[in-house]
Amino acid sequence: MRDVVIIGGGPAGLCAGLYAARSGMDAVLIEAKFSGGQVGTTNLVENYPGFEHGIGGPELAMLMEQQAVGAGLSIEFESCTKLELEGDVKRVHLTSGEVVDAYAVILAMGAYPRKLGAKGEEEFRARGVSFCATCDGFIFKGKRVAVIGGGNTAAEDALYLANICESVTLVHRRNSLRAENALVTKLLTNPRITVMWDSVVDSFEGEAKLETMNVRNIKTNETTPVPVEGAFVAVGAVPNSDIVKGILELDESGSIKAGEDTRASITRVYAAGDIRTKPLRQIVTAVADGAVAAAAALQDIGLRVHNEPPRQICGFVGDPGAVQLVGNTV
Description:
CATH architecture of the largest domain: 3-Layer(bba) Sandwich
CATH class of the largest domain: Alpha Beta
Shape: elongated
CATH superfamily of the largest domain: FAD/NAD(P)-binding domain
Radius of gyration: 22 Å
Structural class: alpha/beta
């Protein structure tokens, strides 16, 4: 019987694990692939506090994992097949057949890349169409590539690819980018990057591999064939919340409804990071969610185990109104 199970090993999950372990809770983190989530596939992180010149995404993910494990967090690399969240005991079913019981569950499954829905997108996936520039960019070294999107991820992908590719065409459906000003300035002044404004990709074409994408201007309705050997889709993400559909309250986008205290619609279930309804999805907001979720879980477990007074585990004590630092009592 665990105190808390954390599902998802991105920044939110790792930070929740760090805080849970440091507070004395018996915590285990379940991750299907690798620690770090989308951070682990980001070439350079420039907006995370403490790194003046930025830090590589995989390096940041590794440091987060090492710190959490060093604090006492257990990590199991498996997938969840089913969640039973009602009742006092939460049950997490794994692909191995193992069932992990806990008093609380922190959901930090993040999100996965949104698809364009363009003709040929699936046909040419892994044959020119990709959703991860840092994963597949080097394959197209010295070649012509495109990035589709207008947010931070698209801008970062375009700048990364401009360092290794012959040319980068950025396709965006609006007439201005949604990315941060610092990224936009770098992008618009990079001689290897060309922007196609007010445009969408209608289709991807080629023989054995991608050769052309057909780009349509939504104002003039004119279609332009653009020769490319690689195309990177960066049009947002979809919350990875299928496993809790019909169990927890979700918003129209599929994000778990949870407030700033991260508490979801079932007692002692919490949503942290990109999977939670929130106005800003960044590494810094994900780790904040993780810390808040761990503190909320500690408070709620204390109230659950001992009606009076709340259980003091280590470092914090639960209180109906707040979670307060009280020292390193075990």
